[in-house]
Amino acid sequence: MACISVKVARIENASGLSFEATFPNRNSHNNSDESWEVQLPVWRPGRYERGDFAQFILKMVGVDENGNDIKLEKCDLHRWRVPCHIFKICWVFQADILNAGSTYVSDDLQYVNPVNCFLYDPQNVDLGYEISLTDIPKNWDIATALPQKNRVLHARDMQHVMDSPWMASPNLYHERYEEGGVDFHVWAYGETPPQHIKFIEDHKAFSKAQIAYFGDFPTPYYHFLYLLPSAMEARHGVEHEDSTVIALGPSDKIQSQHGYDELIGIASHELYHSWNVKRIRPSEWTPYNFSESSPSKLGYIAEGVTTYMGDLFLYEAGCIDLKGWCSKMEALLFRHLNNPGRHNLSVAESSYDTWLDGYRPGVNGRKGSIYVEGAVLAFLVDARIMTLTSGKYSLSTAMKLLWERFGKPRIGLTADAYWDILAEVAGERLEDLRSNYADGTADTWNALVEAMKTQKLVLTKSTDDQGRITARIVEIGG
């Protein structure tokens, strides 16, 4: 089968990577003597804003049959025109940013997110990739969900490669465990994971709990890739089809109890994304269109439901107790109650507008957070379904149906379909929740107090001398 052959190597004495890609000869198939084009992604999954990765390209040339470099001209900001007789392309990518969605190289690490730095043929997106890591020493480990053999990685098509990061280093921590017939791998660069025995036990617990609710797991394997730099500030997680990258640093943060709680919380969140977003995916992202902005109003499902469920499954799995769950919800509500933007743009509108001003705070009071406002809405939905069904069903019930009807067959999700499934599970439509808190900007406080009460919890709030609102949750009678 025809594929794109890519060689990856570090630029000596520089923070960059060189790429050499040989594309299948188009002329042998269609006898075309016209030029063709290569595209670099504009954005990456898990970050619903433009990444404009072409800003990190230092060089882009074609190589003719005599080995001569031919400078490629752009036909738009992220696309280059290639003469008809050229099928080998070389480029250099600046790789000096370390976070969970970047590409970074150093003396002891090659960390690559192909969606930052890989070219693709927009007219032949089904082409596979064969990736040779030409300068990785034999004593280095390679952590990735991509199939690999003899330092060569294989991706079945463009969508697969763009969603499959790797990291290579001589000093990777590695543990594995099995749950529900799934082969899980935990890799870490830099620091050893904190409380590493409990760390793996908690991974086993929340993996088991999530798989039990959904009934099965999308793939036979899954890789947690941890970047734990000792001296660098980081806090970030990114979901991928068969893996996740989670970054936290520096050392004093990683090894603190707060750091441990952060890592476990992000890990549970990212694993839940294996179903929700990677498969149960808004129609605007089915499949991913990397050539342009792809706004969607369903961020409250993609990230809000995942934020709520990630914490809930820590509780369901016994990784945290009720007090721990209440503490996480209080922190969420602090962000919710002290953001006036939630009264200006709905969470659906805020989701659409992440493509305008990204994840920055932006203009004060302009918008809400798809993570925070979406999680608050998910809690209200969950409590309502449990109340209407006397605890027989929940939001997890609805998510399992969404997995079976939309995730497995890879059918793009719409807002109407989501709320129809919720109505089916609840036994009645939840239009007040949709109109008030998904599409509207109504205040949530009274609804939250009542929803907490149905869960035998008391919600109160207080205001400090700086005007900040703090929520407190306790058990009834506690």
How would you characterize the overall build of this protein?
By secondary structure, this protein is α+β, with helices and mostly antiparallel strands. It folds into three domains: 167 residues, Sandwich (Immunoglobulin-like); 103 residues, Neutral Protease, domain 2, CATH 1.10.390; 164 residues, Orthogonal Bundle (Neutral Protease, domain 2), CATH 1.10.390. The protein has 15 helices and 22 strands. The strands form five sheets. Strands 5-4-8-2-1-11-14-13 form an eight-stranded mixed beta sheet. The longest helix is centred in the middle third of the chain and has 19 residues.
In total, the number of strands is 22
Low-confidence runs: none
- Amino- and carboxy-terminal Cα gap: 65 Å
Taking all residues together, what is the mean pLDDT?
96
Count of the separate structural domains: 3
What class would the helix/strand composition place it in? alpha+beta
State the assembly state of the protein chains.
Answer: single chain
Summed up, the helix count is 15
Q: What strand line-up does the widest sheet have?
A: 5-4-8-2-1-11-14-13
Strand content: 25-35%
Radius of gyration: 23 Å
**Helical residue percent band:** 25-40%
Return the CATH topology of the largest domain. Answer: Immunoglobulin-like
**Could you give a short account of the major beta sheet?**
8 strands, mixed
Shape: globular
Task: Give the CATH architecture of the largest domain.
Answer: Sandwich
CATH level 1 class label of the largest domain: Mainly Beta
